[in-house]
Amino acid sequence: MMSSVTQAAAGDQLAAAARNITKRYGRTVALNEVGIEIRDGESHALVGRNGAGKSTLVSVLTGLQAADSGEVTFYGKPSPALSDREGWRRNVACVYQRSTIMPALSVAENLFINRQGKTLISWSKLRKQSAELLEPFGVDVDVTKPAAELTVEQRQLVEIARALSVGAKFIILDEPTAQLDGPAIERLFERMRALQDSGITFMFISHHLEEIYEVCQTVTVFRDAKHILTAPVADLGRTELVDAMTGEPGGLSVPGAADRPSIGDKSTVALNLRDLSGDSFDSINIEVRKGEVIGLAGSASSGKHQLAETVYGLRKASSGVIEVDGRKLKPGSVLDALKNGIGCVPRDRHHQGLVLGLSIAENAAMTVMDKLGPAGTVPPKQLAQVGSKAIESYDIVTSGPDQPVSDLSGGNQQKVVMARALASDPKVLVLINPTAGVDVKSKESLLGVVDRVARTGAAVIVVSDEPDDMRVCDRVLVMFHGEVAHEFGRDWTEQDLVAAIEGVTEK
Ligand SMILES: Nc1ncnc2c1ncn2[C@@H]1O[C@H](COP(=O)(O)OP(=O)(O)OP(=O)(O)O)[C@@H](O)[C@H]1O
Description:
Layout: E1 14-25, E2 28-39, E3 43-47, H1 54-61, E4 69-74, E5 77-78, H2 85-91, E6 92-95, H3 107-111, H4 123-134, H5 152-165, E7 170-174, H6 182-197, E8 201-205, H7 209-215, E9 218-223, E10 226-232, H8 238-246, E11 269-278, E12 281-289, E13 293-297, H9 304-311, E14 319-324, E15 327-328, H10 334-339, E16 342-345, H11 349-353, H12 360-365, H13 369-372, H14 380-394, H15 410-423, E17 428-432, H16 440-455, E18 459-463, H17 467-471, E19 475-480, E20 483-488, H18 494-501
Parallel strand pairs: 3-8, 3-9, 6-7, 7-8, 13-18, 13-19, 16-17, 17-18
Antiparallel strand pairs: 1-2, 1-4, 4-5, 9-10, 11-12, 11-14, 14-15, 19-20
Helix pairs in contact: 14-15
This protein binds adenosine-5'-triphosphate.
Adenosine-5'-triphosphate binds at residues 25, 28, 30, 48, 50-56, 397, 407-412, 439.
């Protein structure tokens, strides 16, 4: 196993290199003398626990932030000056989990943004060039439509096409699979392989370690702002990889439903969905008992997200009833859902989950403010206690409860969302992709929390396609085209689940 970043195969050209990079944010050292060398034409994985420094390295490698010290080179040449955005764009592009596309502009405008030159824009030419650019990517969209209408998969492809069209041959994919369903992930990987064959180099960030084995040749591990190792993927077993990430031997153990006592019919129904129809789902009947964990799986178009969002009041059902402990909820009211004991981890932590400018403590306490003090006068000490408890219980990497959530790494923000959902001791928990962006070790502890709250009698719905997230469930309901198409007990195999999600099994 190689242990130094300076040992990239001799003679191989490097597409990108960062050496001796240090980056501090106030007291936090986000990168401590780290390096990475990415060989021309390879897919190089960068992995590490939440807060390890991956995104910070991405911002240094893309020229969005200057390092305090160290150097970046592309194809052996020093990186452009920070002000030379064009220069950086010609060398490197990053497809983030969050879009850099302007939703209100058309797809064509997004593709050619900053590049119309000084002459007047010919719209017909722009449209034609855009269509030609996207054609090899199989993105079959009307380029005059607003980019907001693109699916996540299409948006990513548009961003890759945009990068390649300005000449970048080194592309960073920062957790690209976090919001894609199984078939879309496979399509992305096929696309990566084809682009690699044509000379494109990738740096790939993911918390799904099996993806690294599938699509990368080399892996670099960061831990606590430091470079730990760089090695060929083929030489590094999964256990060794996890040990390098966590700094301790012992592997992982995700809690399974089988370890909890069986619920049976004795437990009373906590959440009852009766004949519920709405945006993308129809006539849903589901009962979730106290202490029961239900998994909702299905492709991106199955209606599972819309159903879950209707349960916690973000969407209004067109007909049917949602009851918590026999009490009917007011349709389309998040507040009423909260008052009646529903806690949620929403799909998009940035839009519905967190107030980024507020601290960890303020975000974690948001669902219980009225219990902490009269009319908005929560004593700071109590607030800090809620924050400190969240940090401890969810292993949040931070300088303290006062730190604004905007300063946290993505995975640590997700843990704050989970802490907030649970702060109110909900009777029913609705969790959408609860482990998205969360590292393998933290995933284990978050799923441990799900297991614990179920044992205390809460009813839980987990919406996810992640087999690990589903293992904690007593039943897994697979949705297909807005209906529950298949139900599994605790004894399913990953193959069964994938087949049902893709709609290739009988009911
Ligand atoms: N703007 C900022 N201000 C203060 N601290 C920051 C800022 N951005 C990042 N940090 C801190 O730097 C450290 C590294 O964060 P970074 O986002 O690079 O981690 P990461 O490895 O990408 O994590 P994740 O897997 O959760 O995305 C963290 O401790 C984070 O809190």
